[in-house]
Backbone:
């Protein structure tokens, strides 16, 4: 445990992303709602960030204030392939849109699309493989940070 408990804040964008990914109500197969996540998972995640911040890997070079946390949750016993497919599709679509309007070049498209895919893989991987995907996310972070905003 880090000697210092950090102050952790979530952004408005975090909650917008959460609303996009989870519905207000549980899904027909028991998929968690936004409320489920906020009441069951979010406090644990905030605690992990606050207490283990110094031991977490940095997300971006030269930015020690950004860290990566990948942990298993308690809300879902099994993952739905449809949900994972939607997340990968959303990442790919965003990359395609940015590429189509000229905001990023071909290399930027590959970085964004790869980041979305590897994020899903890291979130769903077994313990044996999760570290490898996390390392790949960290390796992608300088290229991701270099993309225009």
Residues:
């Amino acid at each position: 445990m880090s000697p210092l408990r950090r102050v952790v804040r979530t952004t408005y964008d975090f909650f917008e992303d959460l609303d996009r990914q989870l519905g207000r109500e549980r899904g027909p197969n028991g998929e968690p709602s936004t409320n489920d996540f906020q009441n069951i998972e979010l406090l644990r995640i905030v605690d992990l960030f606050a207490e283990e911040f110094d031991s977490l890997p940095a997300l971006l070079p030269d930015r020690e204030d950004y860290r990566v946390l990948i942990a298993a949750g308690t809300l879902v016993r099994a993952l739905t392939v449809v949900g994972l497919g939607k997340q990968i599709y959303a990442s790919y679509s965003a990359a395609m849109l940015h590429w189509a309007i000229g905001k990023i070049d071909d290399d930027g498209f590959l970085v964004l699309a790869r980041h979305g895919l590897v994020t899903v893989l890291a979130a769903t991987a077994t313990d044996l493989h999760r570290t490898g995907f996390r390392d790949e996310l960290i390796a992608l972070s300088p290229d991701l940070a270099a993309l225009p905003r």
